[in-house]
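Record 1 of the preview.
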Amino acid sequence: MDTQQNTALTRALAEIPGPLPARGVIHIAIPHTDRFTVVGNHLAQHPGLSCTAVGIAVRIQSLPQGVEVGIKALAARCREGEKRVAAALRELEAFGYLQRVRDRLPSGRVITRTVFCNQPTALLHPRSPAAAPTPPRAPAQTETPAPPATEQPMPPAPPTPTGLPGPSETPSPEAPALLPVPPPQPQPQLPQSSPFVPLPPSLPLVPPPTAPKPPPRPLPRPSELTPELGRAATAFLCDLHRHAPRFVLTETDVRQLVPGVAAWLERGAHPDAMRHALTDDPPVPLRRPALLLKHRVTELLPPPPPGLQERAALARRPRITVTPFQTCDDCDRAFRSPTPGHCRDCREDRACREYRTADVQTAA
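->
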């Protein structure tokens, strides 16, 4: 009873017209009147960007122009650390949403400008700048006939102080009054150091949804599908469900996948390694296991083993002989030598002692 319940969403659900869906999200859309940012679905539902990258992009897009959006500045604003922020910025830069431009100021200092584009696909077809609107001309007043003047004596004009217009300087009502037309204002141009520069065409941009997809790669085939390879590939595919229960294949699927598995076996792949490469970490739920196996058999094909000529070249390569370690018989010091014996210091000591013994015997 003491827990406060928020019934605002319950009341809002009751006001939604029509039947509510049995599952999935239910949107309660309240239009914003201030402090909002328009985000396209191409960014919010981008299949190649992580959720962290999408959130960082929305955060950058909501900031006013001129705010620092470096790694340390974003890490101070967000709960993510610098490593995750840096990885998100690299993702946005790879898909064309972000670009870092190096610019030189008139003083000679080189700075880095961060450019964010909310729709990089629109840069593929830039729009021509709109022509400057011509200001409307004021319509000239038509001449109105002056009323007939009556002959009356005009009083003398009083003396006019210096700097003030006299009666003779006032415009006559009979002259047509034309308003001065202001010259057309030139369209403001962005300076060369403006951050809004078009991205280079070499950046990978997000293709539009209607772009034609490349044809899938064909299933690999062995150089010669021998009966032994065919039987081994068929046995591997038919026994696959015993190790991975979700990979249950039909007879047609097995017949279509036999050439690809035979190409793996021809290249010396071990069945256990093949099984792990083709069935590990499948998507959930797995609706069409045959298509997943076809994709992995095609994309994860191992390289062919080296031929006879490559093996002969490896056999002719000179081998490096490693001299083994030996233990000195006098000082038990380890040294490298093809045969056991004494180390270099012990050999020099022995040579000195023998030389002195020979000198003593010669003097005697």
